[in-house]
Amino acid sequence: MLNTLKKYWGYDAFRPMQTDIIQSVLDGHDTLALLPTGGGKSICFQVPSLMQDGLCLVISPLIALMKDQVQNLNKRNIPATAIYSGMHYREIDRTFDNAIYGNTKFLYLSPERLASDLARERIKKMKINLLAIDEAHCISQWGYDFRPSYLNISDIREWLPDVPVLALTATATPKVVEDIQEKLVFRKGKNIFQKSFARENLSYVVLDEEGKQEKMLDILQKVKGSGIVYVRNRRKTKEIATFLRKKGISADFYHAGLSSDIRSQKQEDWTNSKIRIMVSTNAFGMGIDKPDVRVVVHLNLPDSLEAYFQEAGRGGRDGKRAYAVLLYNNLDKNNLLKNYEQSFPDMTEIRQVYRALGSYCQLATGGGKGNSYAFDIVDFSKTYQLDILKTHHCLKVLKNEGWIELTDSVFEPATMKVIVTQEELYKYQVAHPKSDNLIRTILRTYQGAFANYVKINEKQLANFLKISTDDMRHKLTQMAQEGILEYIPQREDPQLIFTQERIAAENLTIDNELYNFRKERYHNNIQSAINYATTAQCRSQQLLAYFSEKNTPLCGVCDVCLGRLDDKLSDKNYNIYKNKIQVQLQGNPTELKDLVKRFPATQESKVLKAINYMLDNGYLEIDEDSVVSWVG
Predict the structure, then answer these.
(1) Is 90 left (phi over 0), alpha (psi -120 to 50) or beta?
(2) Domain ranges of the chain
(3) Would you place residue 31 in the very low, low, confident or very high pLDDT band (cuts 50, 70, 90)?
(4) How far apart are CA 599 and CA 577, in angstroms?
(5) Angle at CA 548, nearest 5°, toward 542 and 551?
(6) Among residues 79, 93, 10, 4, which one has the least CA distance to residue 44?
(7) Which of 191, 209, 274, 409 satisfies CB 3.0 to 4.6 Å to 24 for a cystine?
(8) CB atoms within 10 A of CB 517
(9) Which of 222, 233, 336, 332 is nearest to 282 (CA)?
């Protein structure tokens, strides 16, 4: 076990609990591992699979995460590949063949692929030593990110009766833990490993602030090091990043609507600390293992504590002090409740969107099951004059009901293969001199184009040839039409998959009992988040209690604990603050918020207590504009 870890990862020891999880898998037990964000979950299935013959089948919901893990494994000379919606049929076919007949050790599959006849047929032929389920909470209706396609996973168990399952997640309540085992058909001898969700180095802070941007700026100026600022929508990411740059803080923005090249570059710049602060929607963070994040700020109240806990947990993975700050005010509560009402549209709206989907994808009634289509929600909404927010919620209902599946953006480089002989290609070049330079450049740059499909960088190739990308694509398309080569252009779009045959919209139904259950659960999630922000109880205790870790000690480092522990300001501390405030204010009246900023953020509650005492005893005066003056 240790030899495998050392050989491929260079580590001398496992993290806590990894050894027990790996041994459980090697002993053939169905295993559920609950490890916090950054706890080393992937090692738990990668090591045992490498120690055995055959391959590990990994089910993962996020295409970007799959690609990242495949790339990291390949860098370690471990053969890994992935299949997901949006890939061309020929690539899927070839990848499955390699998994059956080649030396593939890890095959990553998106859950919706499991419904296809091709996947079912090929998986039965593979020599699989382990079935790993990443983000396993997605299989539960009780989870915060339920995905109906995860329910297909239980079918695999019938085809692979002797293969153990390893389910992994960072966040799961007791109900979700029970549901995961039931839905994945855990067998006798099952093992559950759960590490405490407590993060002793992470200081949780909730601040009720009307001026959130100014407070965020104050925090980022005082807490040095890398950070993430989470906001609710894409427009805000750019707006806040611009605000921070104007204030002298190195910042960039990130959301799922950016091209993969741009997202990758931004992520790389932040990971390498070229950018200090990343302002993002919740699209940023999955699979990113940056250990030295010192602060994570949420500018909006989250709609579930599971999501908040996972996002906040990206701070302080190196074990050093980090801060998870939630900036909250009454508007957040109102916005969450408003979003709750909009999240559950009526059937008329749902059927309207479903009908438009069939037209947008040019899909006839009775067909399309398993088909994948490039999908742009902005273009779709504009084309059919639909409100984009309502459309988003209708699509989510259709996804939760198992009618469709939606994925994140899929970047697929262009691929091509020459399908004529060298002699026939030479004759074509002579007859078409305008294409000769393109053909010769491709054959020189990309080896093996006669035998295999090769991936080509269209932009790079066009720049080298000093022609536009559109012209180059036109030439390649023309050669494909003339039977010289097969060509699949570069693509990058979110994918929409019809998981059931398209039916007439008027016949569309949903499970009303489940629909109402989700509605109630969503409301409960919102209420839990509101309670967390507004209850004066140790933040860590509240979060741990939510995940059923009861009677835990006070963390001593959250905003509530610091305030509670410091109810009595010692005479010594009071005199220190009084003397400093006197020096600051004599002949120089100062606005209250600016006066407090002159002290470390961790002393803010003590400073305010000292100021209140000095106001009560006539040392200070404060006017209607909150300007504080020293009067002695």
Answers:
(1) alpha
(2) 2-194, 202-327, 338-412+494-522, 414-489, 566-630
(3) very high
(4) 9
(5) 65
(6) 4
(7) 191
(8) 13
(9) 233
Asked if pLDDT for residue 565 goes beyond 60, the answer is no
Dmax over CA atoms of the chain, in Å, equals: 99
pLDDT of residue 97: 93
Residues 167 and 189: their CA atoms lie apart, in Å, by 15
pLDDT of res. 1: 87
Q: Is the confidence at residue 409, as pLDDT, over 80?
A: no
- Cβ-based burial of 345 (10 A; exposed 0-12, middle 13-18, buried ≥19): buried
C-alpha pair distances (Å), 188 with each of 19, 34, 177: 21, 19, 16
**Residue 162, CB-side half-sphere exposure with 13 Å CA sphere:** 4
Q: Tokens 């979950």 appear where? A: 41
CB-based contacts of 339, cutoff 8 Å, min separation 6: 303
Residue range 338-412+494-522, CATH number: 1.10.10
- With residue 495 as reference, give the H or E element that holds it: strand 491-498
Q: Which CATH superfamily is domain 2-194 in?
A: P-loop containing nucleotide triphosphate hydrolases (3.40.50.300)
Hey, is 102 helix, strand or coil? coil
Residues 6+ apart with CB under 8 A from 557: 203
Give 3-state DSSP helix, strand, coil % of the chain, rounded to 5. 50, 15, 35
Domain 414-489 has CATH 2.60.40: no
Return mean pLDDT, the chain: 89
SS (H, E, C) 301-348: CCCCHHHHHHHHCCCCCCCCCEEEEEEECHHHHHHHHHHHHHCCCCHH
The yes-or-no answer to whether 2-194 and 414-489 have a common fold is: no
The H or E element spanning position 471 is helix 469-481
Long-range contacts of 567-575 (CB under 8 A, 24+ apart): 569/606, 569/609, 569/610, 569/613, 573/606, 573/610, 574/610, 574/613
Q: Which two tokens stand for residue 433?
A: 């001199």
585 has pLDDT over 70: yes
pLDDT attached to residue 562 = 76
Architecture of domain 202-327: 3-Layer(aba) Sandwich (3.40)
